[in-house]
Every structure is written in structure tokens, then in C-alpha cells.
Amino acid sequence: MSANLEAKKAVVEEIKSKIQSSKSVVLANYNKLTVSEVTELRNKFKNASSEYKVYKNTLVRKAFDELGVSDFDSDLNGTTAVVFCPDETSACSIFSKAVKENPALEEKIVPKSAYVNGAYVDKAGIKALAAIPSREVLIAKMLGCLQSPIANLAYVLNSIAQSK
Prior knowledge:
Elements: H1 3-21, E1 24-30, H2 35-47, E2 51-54, H3 57-66, E3 80-85, H4 90-101, E4 109-116, E5 119-121, H5 123-131, H6 135-163
Antiparallel strand pairs: 1-3, 1-4, 2-3, 4-5
Helix pairs in contact: 1-3, 4-5
């Protein structure tokens, strides 16, 4: 076999392993991004333990096909960036925050679809995922809700004790 074919097979295997090890994979259309904008996006994803990569669409399609997923065939056209993420929501949130911080990116980087926990997610689903707070924020809110009644009881008991 040719060296080129072997290299492509190695890249497909790399993509497959990244898809399998990620809880979410987001496909995004990046059109006319400058080098500094791409670098800034890569750094944001890197800080969130995610990986922003650009692969050939045919290789990504082949990796998904080998995993038995054909939902992304229509989304793998044009310029496509792939983000591999260790959780379900942070990649979607980073795209959303980047557009809020720099409105010029709204036309330049547009999430197409995502693969979250083995399921296809469309553009509307990506927006919904972006609205969900991170795991840490949700845990903090839950602990606050659990702690609130106890703190209120302690406050009431303390005020009763001080009033006597």
C-alpha cells in the first residue's frame, strides 16, 4: 500500500479514538477566521481541556462511518473544525461566549452539529447545551439550595437566643 493511504488510515484511527474518548464532539463552520482569532479560540478550548482541530471532511466522515454513525454526512461539507470535549456542554458554551465577546465572530464561526454521548445534536440542540451551566456551577447551586434551609434555621435560632 502507498504511504499516503497508510497515513490517512492512521489519521482516521486517531479521529476515531478521539471521538470515542470524548463525551461531546462539535462540528463548526469556520469561515474567514484570521490567524489570531483561530489562535484565541484554540487557547480557549485548550483551557477547557478540549481540542480544536481541522481535519479533512472525508477523513472525519470515514471515522464516523466506521463507528456506525452516518448522521454527520450532510454536515461534513465546506470548512469544518472539529472540537473534542471531555464533557457535554463546555465546547458549546465556549462557542457561545466567543461570539458574545466578539460579535464579529458570529458570521465566521458557526456550530453545525454535535455528537453528544452517542447522539446527534443539531444547531438548536447546541444552543440549548450552551445555555446549560457547567457541572461545577450546577453542583455549587445545588449545594447552595441544600445549605440554605440549614443556614436560615441557624440564623433564626441564633436570633431567638440573642433576644432572651
